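Recall the central idea of this unit: under ordinary conditions, the amino acid sequence of a chain determines the structure it adopts. In this exercise we apply that idea directly, starting from the sequence alone.
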Amino acid sequence: MFDTTKEEELRQKKADAMRDMGINPFPPRSKRTHTAMEAKTAFETGGLGEKEEVSLVGRVRSIRVMGKASFAHIEDGSGPVQIYLRKDDMGEEAYTFFRRMVDVGDFIGVTGYMFQTRTGEITCHVKSLELLTKTYHPLPDKWHGLKDVETRYRHRYVDLMMSEDVRQIFVTRAKLVQALREYLNSNGFLEVETPILQPIYGGAAARPFITHHNQLHQDLYLRISFELYLKRLIVGGYERVYEIGRDFRNEGVSYKHNPEFTQLEFYEAYTDYRGVMRRAEEMVAYAAEKVLGTLEITFEGHEIDLTPPWRRLPLRDAIREASGIDYEEYPTAESLGEAMREKGAAVNPKASRAKLIDNLIGTFVEPNLIQPTFLVDYPVEMSPLAKRSPENPNMAERFEGFIGGIELCNAFSELNDPGDQLQRFQDQARARAAGDEEATPVDEDFVLALRFGMPPTGGFGMGIDRFTMVMANKPSIREVILFPHLRSKEK
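Accordingly, the structure predicted from this sequence is:
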């Protein structure tokens, strides 16, 4: 199953030798009175009596042997601490066990007292030692760590154990999610859970993953969005709801796409997309201030100011200024595609007009939206779930938010006219029949829900992974997902 090296075979032989000695190399329990940080802090602040006993645990990070005495570093979740082991204090048998049986990477527990070396390092003077876990596989070189990106992602546990910076990314991510929850909870939103397995998928333009329920003899889809279920809850009487969870989209992998990703969606009754814009910029600023302590961040070499209000830029103006194309002058996919080719853009001959406009955004506009910007007012054909603008029925009250050249969020004034919604679904069905595999399927039950009445509502969706990318200054989504999707090794 595993191709073992000589070093691994030697470590396994040590484990076997311990068993022969009656020592379990994987004991079921450990003793700890302080974390490494707690012990060092207590010593510095006078919280420990003279030679007061402490018990510490951790992974061995380094060993430096000097005859009858040795120094080592162990590390727990709070950080590293130096330990000092001396033959005369531990006894010959225990000290010999440490010298012969303990390797870098092993987990050990030590009991002793804290002191300060002549070089000023706070250290634990060890009186007794116990092996807690024998490690078979040696750690990567401490100075070089894991350099191969593929290996870092495929064996994330090694990446984490070797890099405090990597571990900190996911601490930041967790704190960002907590801050978003704090903001929404304190503003009257109710956190809910909606189905992951759905008989009809919807809420986004994406291809789904399909699975099968054996007992019910029913094909089901992994959700691509929470939207249609959360809006059912607005119909049901809740005024403010949100969900943070996984979505699944059967699409390509890139620096900003992963087949499964974490999404935040909220829906708020009695507001529109302008109200959602204000809430979105306020929420992002709150999370940044809470976690990073500042609204001025750095992403990909750009200094970015998250202070509200953010710029509002009409989509039509943004595309016209960036590409020289006014999509209103090209009412068909064929004419718009030809204009795009003349500007040097790649064009899929089967793409719908909505897809081509989205391509214009990605090619000409998005990369240049570094400071926080809302692109507002989208063509209705791009927004099958958004309310039409009263001023222009061909325009939908929709915005997308961008930071650092990355699309961060998407939001609407939610469509609540059941007749209009059914017509939009039918338009999508025709697009699907024409070859658009990402077109939204008809959800008759959702239309029925709207027939019971949904109040004016604003909705919002944001990718947590991309939000973390920007906040942690990481250029790839794989850097902020603990276990990103990878091709199988055979491929």
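Residues 418 and 442 are 12 Å apart (CA to CA).
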